[in-house]
Design brief:
By secondary structure, the chain is of the alpha+beta class. Helix content is 30%, strand content 34%. It has 4 helices and 10 strands; from the N terminus they run βαβββααβββαβββ. β9 and β10 form a beta hairpin.
């Protein structure tokens, strides 16, 4: 598994880099193949270490954010969270980890008149999936919503978690 570590406003000691690579290989290597890509983004905010771990494998993305006073503890907590996500959704994840689906690039159009400040543009690859897969992916990423191409309709849809714990799907009405 390829591991990349990025530090924001801090220096990463070599022993942490070695520790992180060994821990990720030992703990997550059994779930992913050699072609998996793990990215760690670490930053220091006052007395807390903020760590974000993202693992990409085939078409699946696993993400965990943790903060702790020690970077080693934050890393171990993030790895534990990803393992819990995998175990919680074991059958669905196993099916998806073995499935290498069609991938397609998607870009957002940029508006001509701007009366607000856009602080981030994000491009990502989308592949057809059903609503259950989209909900699984949203939960794995720990996001509030998830945009996807609906495999049944071919349309762009958005799924989100409601305050009551249920899920809703937004789909265009072209009629």
């Amino acid at each position: 598994m390829k591991t990349t570590i990025t530090a924001k406003k801090m220096q990463i000691p070599q022993n942490f880099t070695e520790y992180a690579e060994k821990r990720i290989d030992a703990r997550l290597g059994k779930f992913f193949g050699e072609e998996a890509d793990a990215k760690i983004v670490i930053s220091e905010l006052r007395t807390q270490i903020e760590l974000e771990l993202t693992v990409k494998y085939n078409s699946m993305i696993f993400r965990a954010e943790r903060s702790a006073e020690d970077k080693y503890v934050a890393l171990d907590d993030a790895i534990d969270k990803i393992i819990r996500q995998i175990r919680k959704n074991k059958t669905k994840v196993e099916k998806k980890l073995k499935d290498t689906a069609f991938k397609e690039a998607f870009a957002y159009p940029v508006p001509e008149t701007v009366d607000y400040e856009v602080i981030k543009h994000k491009k990502f690859k989308m592949r057809p999936m059903n609503v259950d897969e989209a909900i699984l992916q949203m939960n794995m990423l720990d996001h509030e919503f998830f945009m996807f191409t609906n495999a049944d309709t071919g349309m762009i849809n958005v799924v989100y978690k409601r305050d009551d714990g249920n899920y809703s799907v937004l789909e265009p009405d072209n009629g």
